[in-house]
Amino acid sequence: MGRDKALLELDGVALIVRTARLVESAAERCAIVGDTVRLEGLELLVIEDEFLGAGPLGGIATALRSSEVEWNLIVACDLPYLTREWLEFLIEHAVRSDADAVLPMNERGAEPLCAMYHKRAESAIRAALDRGVRKVTDGLAEIRIKFIELPQWKGFDSEGLLFKNMNSPADYEEAKSRLEGRPKR
Question: What does the alpha-carbon distance between residue 48 and residue 181 come to, in Å, rounded to a whole number?
Answer without folding.
Answer: 33
